[in-house]
Amino acid sequence: MWHRKPATLLALREQIENAPAAISMTKVTRAAFDRVIDVWKPTATTLSTSCNHTDQSLFKNMESENHTRVAEFQLLGLSEDPDLQPILLGLFLSMYLVTVLGNLLIILAVSSDSHLHTPMYFFLYNLSFTDICFSSTTVPKMVVDIHKQHKTISYKGCLTQICFVLVFVGLENFLLTVMAYDRYVAICNPLRYTVIVSPHVCVLLIMLSLSISIVDALLHTLMALRLSFCTDLTFPHFFCELAQLIKLACSDTFINNILVYMVAVILAVASLIGIIFSYVTIFSSILRMPSTRAKHKAFSTCGSHLSVVALFYGTGFGVYASSEFSTSSSSSAIASLMYTVVTPLMNPFLYSLRNRDVKEALKKLIRPSPFVKSSHVL
To answer: DSSP for 234-259?
Structure first.
């Protein structure tokens, strides 16, 4: 606007006269610009706030879509073939009734025969009761689902089922360990057996096993409450299993997995090591016995327990291997079926068929009394 070297004094005068007008025009332009900014600033602020609110709403909607509020889970069961449903219904209903009846007969036989009021059969009594409860946590729900063709379970029902399954699995694990300890003391230290394995100690061992199992189950269940789930709420099983629940979760499951592995190592592996150590010592003591009859009796008392141990831990390892190394849902469900249904079913047969004392007690229980015979004659 200003020239450094004006050509004439007239030109310099004109520039001086025009300078206030230019300055005033600049002020008007700046004032107008400031006015426009003042007018549009609230609108821009409103638009910015609206955009932020919209983004937050979209984020919340996306979050609610990704992490749904769990109402119930879908259970696939063992098969979706409608032709197999009546067969499965009859099969599992029969297996459950046989399980309950067989274990109930063991309980009645131990209770009614005074010769079986020993620590060994006291633990067998509790094992049979545990098998009835263990089977009752899964099989009746599965039978009802097959009958109604509505295989679902609520969120609370799923967590409750997981809790009870863990309680009775842990209790059976400890009972098998305690029974191995009982046989170890009876064979390796028979003179002090009644002192070491007294009735007070037996009750204390049962209460301790139950307490640890309850604490373990509650710990896993409470940790499962922190998990959030996506839209896929389908269990490839006939019941809620903790490992499958963790796999369905969308949130971080690192702590849950660490807890599962830590408890498995501390409780299951430690118990199995204790059982193996007990039987290694037992077999070495049996081989040193001079009498063949004493050897046979010792082996017969341990045979039933060893069969149950092999069945329980073998199926448990099968469940772990199928969940970790197999992608097939059917193989995992079959492995879970083995330790939840087949193991409680086989335990009474293994003890009744291989144990002479239990067979004699069952015969007395089933055989009618002399008073009943005389009444029939009259």
So the answer is: EESSSS--HHHHHHHB-S--HHHHHH
106 in Cβ contact with 363 (< 8 Å):
no
Length of the chain: 378
Cβ atoms of 235 and 336 closer than 8 Å: no
Which among 169, 209, 171, 193 is positioned nearest to 120, based on CA atoms?
Answer: 193
What backbone torsions phi and psi does residue 330 show, to the nearest 5 degrees? -70, -40
User: What are the residues whose beta carbons fall under 8 Å from the beta carbon of 184, sequence distance 6 or more?
Assistant: 278, 279, 281, 282
Q: In what order do the strands lie in the sheet with 152-154?
A: 152-154, 72-75, 234-235
Measuring CA to CA, which residue among 369, 181, 141 is closest to residue 273? 181
d(CA 51, CA 34) in angstroms, rounded, equals: 25
What is d(CA 4, CA 7) in angstroms, rounded to the nearest whole number? 10
Least Cα distance to 173 among 270, 261, 81, 258 occurs for 270
CATH superfamily assigned to domain 70-363: Rhodopsin 7-helix transmembrane proteins (1.20.1070.10)
CA 213 to chain centre: 12
Residues sharing a CB contact under 8 Å with residue 232, sequence separation 6 or more, in sequence order: 248
Sequence ranges of the domains in the chain = 70-363
Q: What is the pLDDT of residues 94-152, one digit of tens each?
A: 999 999 999 999 999 999 988 889 999 999 999 999 999 999 999 999 999 888 888 88
* Gyration radius of the chain over CA positions: 38
Listed residue (29, 58, 67) closest to 227, CA to CA: 67
Question: Which residue do the tokens 């606007």 mark?
Answer: 1
Residue type, 131: D
> CA-CA distance, 184 to 276, in Å (whole number)?
11
- 3-class SS of residue 226: coil
Cβ–Cβ < 8 Å for 137, 168: yes
pLDDT tens digit string along 33-80? Answer: 454 445 444 444 443 444 344 444 433 444 444 444 567 888 887 877
Query: Per-residue DSSP letters for 264-307?
Result: IIIIIIHHHHHHHHHHHHHHHHHHT-S-HHHHHHHHHHHHHHHH
